[in-house]
Amino acid sequence: MPDKPKEIALEDRASAGEKLFSPSTARNRDPIRYVFLKTMPASGKILEIGGGTGEHAAHLAGALPEVQWHTGDPDPTSRGSIAAWIADARLANLSGPHAIDVTAKEWGVEKDAPFDGLVSINMIHIAPFAAAVGLFSGARRLLKPSGKLFLYGPFARKGVHSAPSNAAFDESLKSRDARWGVRDLEHEITPLAQKNSLTLDAVVEMPANNLSVIFRKT
Ligand SMILES: C[S@@+](CC[C@H](N)C(=O)[O-])C[C@H]1O[C@@H](n2cnc3c(N)ncnc32)[C@H](O)[C@@H]1O
Question: What's the whole-number average pLDDT of the chain?
Answer without folding.
Answer: 95
